[in-house]
Amino acid sequence: MKIVLSLCFLLFVVTLFAQKKNLYKEKYRPQFHFSPPENWTNDPNGLVYYKGIYHLFFQYNPFGNKWGHMSWGHASSKDLLHWENLPTAIPEAKNFMIFSGSAVADIYNSSGFGNKKEQPLIAMYTAHTATNQSQYLAFSLDKGKNWNQYDHNPVIDLHKKDFRDPSVTWYDKGNCWLLAVSQPVEKMISFYTSANLKEWKWLSNFGPAGDTSGVWECPDLMQVPVIDEEGKSKWVLLLSQNASMQYFVGEFDGKRFVNENPSDKIFRPDYGPDYYAAIAYHETGFGKNPVSIGWVNNWNYANDIPTSPWKGAMSLPRKLSVKKINNEWILLQQPLMSLQSLRASAIYEAENVSVEKKEVLNAHSNQCEIKLTWKPLPNSTSGIMLAAAEGTPVIIGYNASKNKLFIDRTGAGDTAFNATYNELSRYATKLLLNNGLLKLDIYFDKSIIEVFANDGQAAMTMQVFPDTNNNKIALFSDGSKSTFDTVKIWEMKSVW
Ligand code: FRU
Fold this sequence. Notes:
- The protein contains 2 helices and 31 strands.
- With 496 residues, the protein is mainly β.
- It folds into 2 domains: 44-335, Glycosyl hydrolase domain, family 43 (Tachylectin-2, Chain A), CATH 2.115.10; 341-492, Jelly Rolls.
- The strands form 6 sheets. Strands 22, 23, 24, 25, 26, 27, 28, 29, 30 and 31 form a 10-stranded antiparallel beta sheet that branches. It has a 5-stranded mixed beta sheet with strand order 4-3-2-1-19, with no helix packed on it.
- Residues 42-43, 59, 70, 99-100, 126, 164-165, 217-218, 276-277 line the site of beta-D-fructofuranose.
């Protein structure tokens, strides 16, 4: 009996070890994007930089690979590229789930949760039950590992079924904490202020405005530097609705947020199908620009994507700035410069590549960065194809007669897992060229594509599930012959 038990135990340990060894090597597993080792994740939560460490908390199901038992998962990083997976930070409570929220470092101990030795990290999240959503506090005195619930929760309760996703920031000018929290059904963001994070005073509401096609969720209000104008910044309000995001740019006067962009136009941080619930590190170790991270998925099919033992990943960290272009404030998003340290080797480099129809390149990869510059000819559609070996490729291109940048996964890879995924295959956005020039920076990471156009003026994120060995890359041109000025491709290292 003893021998049998010992053998069983040994087998268990060996299997566990084998499973762990193969983690991050699974089909479709992103190699330079964050995803939890196992189980379901959705929104990034509590993005906070404290004592040289970036904390990433995230909506997490510790018990399965579908949405449920919502808790805060936890990972940390010194550079926002390499992550250490940590135990679940705030687990589901007996009577409620831990929905999205934010975290701050209370370095002056305004809350009183700290002690002589430790400044507290404070998380504000939504406690969710079937009938109520209210805002709760938890604090940590050991750099985010263990969390204690505040005795007098909730700190804000409007006795409403929908009222969620608190985002706290320090408001320097007012010398106080500032909160943005969503009233989803009313399509309104409410602002509150506090001196100690415990007692909150309502300031104002913003909305409905812009895209009101779905409930409003996950607001984030922050100051963002104006590019190339030293010392100047604008206030940006990011929020999510209906499987896509939008942003407003304007001023916050201590009480109210006023949008300064045209009110009849919708501005999105990402024009692809798979970018949601993005929020930002308001403070980082480098400069004044916030750095955002979004959830690479779409509620319409998120629970069905063919990945296991995990579902859901985070976007690359994006450095934010704003720029006035044609009298509109545009949010510029640039992947962190330090991503260049993940470039392994250049696998393709060429200038003046002329293409008629389709040109398969002598370089293959499904884990790479691609930089392209060209002057799209009038009436042409040109660009690049990924996973272009057989069947239908993924296409990223520019339609010059419509001035539209597009990404299209119609029929590419595995599409059988969900009908809506199939329907939501082609995305396009208007993008005016810069003196006729288009610059694309594309990151392809197994099942995630992120495209940044003209220095971050437009971004598009898309999931795709092609066969592992379908890794050909091709340039294409329809209508007339196109010449790509520069084409450079780097294989990317894995961070796992
Ligand atoms: C957004 C969201 C949030 C909520 C969380 C629950 O994706 O619906 O509004 O807090 O997910 O997991």
